[in-house]
Amino acid sequence: MSNSKYTLLDGGMGQELYQRGIRGEDCIWSTNGLLKSPDIVKQIHLDFIEAGATVITTNTYNTNPHCLAQVGLEDRYAELTNLACDLAAQARAESGKDNIQIAGCLPPLYGTYLPNLPRDINKMRAEYLQMVEIIKDKVDVFLCETMTTADEAYAAASACAETDVPVWMAWTLADDTRAVLRTDESIKTALKRLNGVDNIEAYLFNCSIPESIAPALQQLKPLTDKTIGAYANGFAPIPKSRNRGDIEAIGKRNFNPAEYGAFVKTWIDEGATIVGGCCEIGPAHIKHIAEEILRK
Predict the structure, then answer these.
(1) CA-to-CA distance for 119 and 286, rounded, in angstroms?
(2) How many whole angstroms from its chain centre is CA 132?
(3) Is 173 in a helix, a strand, or coil?
(4) Nearest of 204, 93, 108 to residue 153 by alpha carbon
(5) How far apart are CA 6 and CA 3, in angstroms?
(6) All residues at 6 or more sequence positions from 154 whose CB lies less than 8 Å from its CB, including other chains
(7) 11, 15, 18, 231: which one has the fewest Cβ atoms less than 10 Å from its Cβ?
(8) pLDDT truncated to tens, each residue of the chain (296 aa)?
């Protein structure tokens, strides 16, 4: 990627593992790669780098204690989180490229896409602090992603603010074009909840259907002078009752690279300068963005 105005993220690690035959407990779908084939995790990082991504995201989406406890692995939390970070670092080193950043993923803690689950903000913040402590010296930026509620986003970002590492905040949107979080909270409300968290450098939207992104960017842009961006998924719209871990029950839209790239163009038109992909968006999609969109 030669256009320095833009930052190109990678795509979805969990679904890429799934497509390469790494499967297991759905509640820890991406962690199955760490448990079964770390070399494939590293290769996926390398494939995204080769495709043109300049930011790769640690495979820590499911390594938090809450997720691991569902399969009796909570005692391996630090081990697996460290392994995920180390694999990203190894991939960067093996790529031979000196412009690659590692984003430390901080995920939603109590299920993806489930806005109505009870969440204790103090408990969430304490768990995020655990993750931050492990990965803070191994990443270039914290990526708080797929944040479902304004409070959840605050808990993650404020934990990151205990360090000097910059933060990128990414909310997940309702799968329609209303430009609200999955809780129906407005973007203005979500942004206001982060007042006082000083080291946030970028605001993004992620893991939502691509059509939901541009209207949300339209609302976000006049509310902030910080960098904005987006990376969508390739799923069918998700009902409020559905957990992301239930992979087989989620429909896929099978976007080809050009189809997904057309959405990315609309986000750039709305001011996005950080773009990439989430679930179901693979190296071919990222390569298309790098070569056919960002180089022109």
Answers:
(1) 34
(2) 16
(3) strand
(4) 108
(5) 6
(6) 121, 193, 194, 197
(7) 18
(8) 445 899 999 999 999 999 999 987 778 889 999 999 999 999 999 999 999 999 999 999 999 988 899 999 999 999 999 999 999 999 999 999 999 999 999 999 988 888 777 679 999 999 999 999 999 999 999 999 999 999 999 999 999 999 999 999 999 999 999 999 999 999 999 999 999 999 999 999 999 999 999 999 999 999 999 999 999 999 999 876 555 555 556 789 999 999 999 999 999 999 999 999 999 999 999 999 999 999 87
* Overall pTM > 0.90: yes
Q: Which pair of structure tokens corresponds to residue 279? A: 């679930």
Question: DSSP class of residue 104?
Answer: E
Q: Could you tell me if 63 and 84 are in contact, meaning their C-beta atoms sit under 8 angstroms apart? A: yes
Joined together, the tokens standing for residue 259 give 């189809």
Using the structure block, give the residue that is written with the tokens 């939502």.
Answer: 208
The yes/no answer on whether domain 7-293 falls in CATH 3.40.50.620 is no
Please report, as a single letter, which amino acid is at residue 9: L
Closest Cα partner for 244 from 102, 123, 143, 145?
Answer: 145
Helix (H), strand (E) at residue 202: strand 200-206
Is 144 strand, coil or helix?
strand
Length of the chain: 296
Q: What residue segments make up the domains of the chain, in order of their start?
A: 7-293
Rounded CA gap, 103 and 9, in Å? Answer: 9
